[in-house]
Write a structure and sequence with these properties.
Length: about 350
Amino acid sequence: MKTPQQLMREQMDELMGKSRDNDLGDENAPQPSFSDPDVDRFHLCGCSPYELLKGTKSETMPQLDRDGFLKERSESLKVQWEALPQEERDKYGYEYELMKFLDILVEEQDRRITKAKERYEAQNDLPPEIPPETKKQIDLLKEQIKELQTQSEVLGEQGEVDASMTAFNKANTMQLQLQAIEQKATPLQPKKQYVDDVSGLVYSSTDNEARIADLQSGRQYKAWKAIREKLIELKAQQPPPPPGTAAASTTNREAEWKREERPAEDRRRDDDRRYDERRDRKDDRRDYRDYRDDRRDDSYRERDYYRRDRYDRRDYDRRDRRDDDRRDYYDRRDSYRERDYYRRDRY
């Protein structure tokens, strides 16, 4: 958390600049450079969102950090920057950074404008509200009119013409009274809200031309108009990023392979190449799945064969043991019989 002294120093820097303590005629005072972190680089390029949106409703946008409002904006340094050749300015990459930053701000502002338009259009489509007391009175009159009309029809069927006409005339009188109440309760021209496409300011259908002119001459409208115009100018100029960065290689590759600027034949060739690559990838995936399924089937077959072989060997062993047991039984039986026969013969 910042101390009160730090907050006061930031306010003084914002109002008077960070070089406020230096003497005006002091030539030995340190002069800021283009790469000084305290210098507003966007101000050098001719459009600083921090300077334009300061004191407006858009000042609280999350993309605008607090330190950006405190940076130094020197007119003499800006003159030196404008005196540089374009090649020298491109080496700094400030115009490229400004283009990207303005693009982010405009995208966020357009998102807010779209959201506000949807909200106000939904409100504009709503029917005008009628006070609850007046609405209750209207509903009561409608019920009475309906009852009188029904009564007039019943009396007419019964042959009571005079009573039927009396009820009918009374219903018509109440119908005129109902129309007068509805016209009085419903506003002739309901107030509608609209959102400006440039600045996001809201104006109503009841505002006159002077009121709209005041909105367009305000700081909010002028700031966003300048930002949008500068963004269009930079996009037409396409400043390169500073050399040696990842953005530089990406930008060069995008500029080389930008689809909109290539001939139709090259685009068709690229489409065919991408289609062939997707088809090859699908074939590779299908071949891999087939190979995987074949290996899985082989492993299943090997496992089943091993299981069958193991079960067969176990059955054979059980059968052999049973045969051995049977032979042993017969051998013992025969030996017992021979022994008994020998004993009987001896005795």
